Amino acid sequence: xxxxxxxxxxxxxxxxxxxxxxxxxxxxxxxxxxxxxxxxxxxxxxxxxxxxxxxxxxxxxxxxxxxxxxxxxxxxxxxxxxxxxxxxxxxxxxxxxxxxxxxxxxxxxxxxxxxxxxxxxxxxxxxxxxxxxxxxxxxxxxxxxxxxxxxxxxxxxxxxxxxxxxxxxxxxxxxxxxxxxxxxxxxxxxxxxxxxxxxxxxxxxxxxxxxxxxxxxxxxxxxxxxxxxxxxxxxxxxxxxxxxxxxxxxxxxxxxxxxxxxxxxxxxxxxxxxxxxxxxxxxxxxxxxxxxxxxxxxxxxxxxxxxxxxxxxxxxxxxxxxxxxxxxxxxxxxxxxxxxxxxxxxxxxxxxxxxxxxxxxxxxxxxxxxxxxxxxxxxxxxxxxxxxxxxxxxxxxxxxxxxxxxxxxxxxxxxxxxxxxxxxxxxxxxxxxxxxxxxxxxxxxxxxxxxxxxxxxxxxxxxxx
Length: 465
What we know:
Immunoglobulin-like, about 45% strand
């Protein structure tokens, strides 16, 4: 195999369980030996009965298929051509994502798609072709599916893969061709032809669970294919929020057969453009193919919804020939959004009598919003009735409340103003001090002593008796 940059040549040695590396002279084509990597030497694995080798179109990775039922992955140094072992995928074993690999029994051919997105390997004794997605950064592979001789695909039965021996992808990345030596046949597969864009996007409100629809995915159906996009296989999950299908969490490499059951929920009270994304492959009801072999991205934008505030009706009372300064609490402001504060009012219908002033300007109708609500306890919105006028109610005005983000209440509320007469001030008359007339001392008349003696003598006989 000659590398796409024409700098190196890679050759498998079946009986050596090895892959040899040569530098190539682009002028005369001569080769210079660079190195050899052997199975079970220096940590290398997957080269037992190495049989087929391919270099990725970006010159970054090398893949070796071996009759031992493996595909080995190496990174390539574009300067000297040397290889570094990355991983091995084995028939019947799990890949790094936890999928069970199939279709590699006696793997005798491997190829990378021209777009670098996928790797295909023929399995001679599995009568199949195995499909892998390729990570262009580290070269690692994730098992996708197996196409096997005799399996049904829609109304068709797969044929021509008995003794699968060689696999190739067309330069336009539209078809895969596999030779079946025991069938004396070439099997032809259509790759994805429906997508017009590798990226779709949705924009959803904050704190809202979003249920996907088929129309959210920007796919154009290929003419004559009869493919219906029905579900998807998630390759990477959103980095924030949660993605579920029929109420169950979606994790890497799980499928959601019914897109209408796919739901994304952002984290509470979070938002942002390009909030998160996930990658996937499409699942189809098709007579030609059942799944995409290319990776797509769903971009999710979450925007902030400014919930409308609410207020309430209110009645205030004041005294004739005074003015009333309104307070924020007079308008019954309430807002569900955290951090949204009272921002003022919008006068819808001004009072029929008196003067409503906002920052010393007549608030006949319109905005009276926003200054100092977080600083001052009292707002510079005031009402003054006409001189000497009163009434209960005296007048009203209609208003809407506004939050600190500029959202007005949906409803209109009424402020009723009562103007009362002043209570009369009671007059207190000082009470005169009472006049006290001195009482005359009683006159005690003295009785002559002789008279006293006579009286005593007259009573004495009775006392003695």
